[in-house]
Amino acid sequence: MPEEKELKGFGKRNRMRRRGQQHKYKRVVLLGNPNVGKSVIFGLLTGKYVTVSNYPGTTVEVSYGNAAIGDDNFLIVDSPGVNNLIPMSEDEKVTRDILLKEKPEAVLLVADAKNLKRALMLLIQLSEMELPCILDLNMEDEARSRGIEVDYRKLSSLLNIEVVGTVAPQRKGIQRLRDAILKPSLPSVNVDYHPVIEDYVRKISVFLPVAHISKRSLSLMILSGDESLRDWLMANLDPGDIEKVEDLRDELQAKMKEPVSSLIGQTRIKFAETITKQVQKSGESKTGAFLQTIDRWTTHPVAGVPILLIVITGFYLFVGKFGAGILVDFIEEVVFGNYLNPVIEKTVTYVFPFAFMQDLLIGQYGIFTMAVTYAIGIILPITATFFLAFGLLEDSGYLPRLAVISDRAFRIIGLNGKAILPMILGIGCGTMATMSTRILETNREKIIATFLIALAIPCSAQLGVILGILGPFSVRALIWWAGCVILVLILTGYLASKFMPGERPDFFIELPPLRAPSPGNIIMKTLSRIEWYLKEAVPLFILGTLILFTLDRIRLLGWIESVASPVVVQFLGLPAKMTEALLMGFLRRDYGAAGMFDLARQGLMNENQVIVSLVTLTLFVPCLANFFMMIKERGVKTALLMITLIIPFALLVGGALNFLLNWTTS
Predict the structure, then answer these.
(1) Which of 20, 31, 125, 312 has the fewest CB atoms within 10 Å distance of its CB?
(2) 62 pairs with which residues across the strands?
(3) Are strands 72-78 and 26-32 parallel, antiparallel or unpaired?
(4) How far apart are CA 500 and CA 447, in angstroms?
């Protein structure tokens, strides 16, 4: 039929047109320092068309999204946050490699409007790479509140690029930013280095191949001692030329009294300061005196401690009392107990008159009675309140201050301040925290941090349940549990730092301003994390229930409990049912904690048993997902060695604690 053929022809042409459009997308790389709101800008530009993937050959996640601006289609690349394009970590190497290997049509440099000089340090390097740029000064509302004003027109004229001011959470300036993306330009930032350095830049450039960034920028990276470029050089240069380049680098260093990298860095700092002084004025801060005082107190070595205790207490009351008490009671007893469970049981009994299916769905280890009830009725309200409280701390800017306060304690275990960030992330998710240890500079630090995260840092879902279990008991139980875990963390970290040779690098962290949290941001973060929890947790809860159901049907569960009885019952002093929680804790930590929560609610454990069980489960094996990430990051041998150490150590600590508690209360 002619009409059908015409439609088919139209469909074919349309598909061919879409394929052609895929190659017409202009690539724009979002680049900036950490904590400047880059990901928020990315979300506003791309909307829902977002994909996240590991950058080839790394574990660093890079986000990609499509954006239609005017008549053009763009592929937006959200690169990891960096402080320098001469890499000191895998994150910075990935960002540099995106610029080096992927040839972006433009770079959107997102900056903190309060710290223009730091952004200009990156812009200098982008200018040397000869990449078209746009500068976005984000968080300009916070800059104004601190009395900081920037002359955008003058700055744009000096740099020869579009400069836009934005307040991303309020969507202010986003349309101007979208318009600016259509007209990127090469920055006119001409930094003159020491004449001898400039001479060697020219000499090295002769041997370098044509690349997506300029030979001058590559030469400066080499002279700055960028060892991460070696693989790229080996792939693009003959061995003889590489040797000549390295000889020139060493020859220059022999002529200079200071490290060449320091001389290059100092020249860039002076240039950035000169530009900043010309365009920035600092007036009277509009931030309230009270907020400024609190800001100073949060990082004070003495005043910061009571603030930390107040925060922890509020966190405990909100999650442990409200979330695990009031909300869990309402959802489990009213919603599930009075409405959902009776309907589900009647439906299953009517549809499936077979005993096997009834046991599978609504029995002791049934999918509805255990998996769904645990995941939705018990864990979800606790997790939701935890995510809400965690988002509040995150959005207020308090978490980096917590890192500063904790830095002295972490010196004892041989780690620098950067290691505190994976630890804090571990409270959110141990798997992501293990991945984030790549920001640490030495393999020694990465191994110690990975071990401590696996051993003593409870993830958000598990911690929420733990606080829920502790809610009905006295503060004594909380102090015993937290004290034991912190003591183990310090002791094992100290021993690990002594057994593993190496020095601890200096600690540096950029503190964002202490701000009033945005309710919209917190709600969006909480909903996003709840969605992540449901997608990941519910299937694993069902899988865990099926495992328990199968073990029970083949009578293997009772055998495991009897075999483990000497350890669980006699050594740890816990009910035999606790074996199930320990087994399921490996599949997913909060599943094990949920089983323990159920035992505590049934009154099957006294306060001492609750303390022992919580400490043991906290220190017990990491979840399956985290174990696989440990293998990916540290290798099979190291991961297995850690697990081999963690399991008996957790049981020994639990047994010793059981003895100590019984002795002190007898």
Answers:
(1) 20
(2) 53
(3) parallel
(4) 9
Q: Is the pLDDT confidence value at 288 over 60?
A: no
269 closest CA partner among 117, 159, 135, 150: 117
The pLDDT value given to residue 435: 64
Question: Which residue bears the tokens 């309710």?
Answer: 519
**How many CB atoms sit inside 10 A of residue 156's CB?**
17
Give the confidence band of 504 by pLDDT, cuts at 50, 70, 90. Answer: low
| Residue pLDDT, tens place only, 516-564 | 777 877 887 788 778 877 876 678 778 778 887 898 888 887 787 778 7
Tell me which residue of 452, 83, 144, 507 sits closest to 299, measured CA to CA. Answer: 507
Q: Could you give the CA distance from residue 415 to residue 611 in angstroms, rounded to a whole number?
A: 29
- Amino acid 336 reads F
Environment class of residue 448 by beta-carbon count within 10 Å: exposed (0-12), middle (13-18) or buried (19+)? buried
Find residue 28's DSSP bridge partners: 76, 106
The rounded distance, in Å, linking the Cα atoms of 92 and 399 is 22
**Pairwise CA distance, residues 333 & 176, whole Å:** 53
User: Is pLDDT of 71 > 80?
Assistant: yes
List b or e across 36-52, with b for residues whose CB sees 16 or more CB atoms inside 10 angstroms. bbbebbbbbbbeeeeee
Can you say how many angstroms the Cα of residue 460 is from the centroid of all Cα atoms in its chain? Answer: 13
Distance, CA of 584 to CA of 543 (rounded, Å): 10
Q: How many CB atoms lie within 10 A of CB 19?
A: 9
| Residue reference for tokens 């030329």 | 241
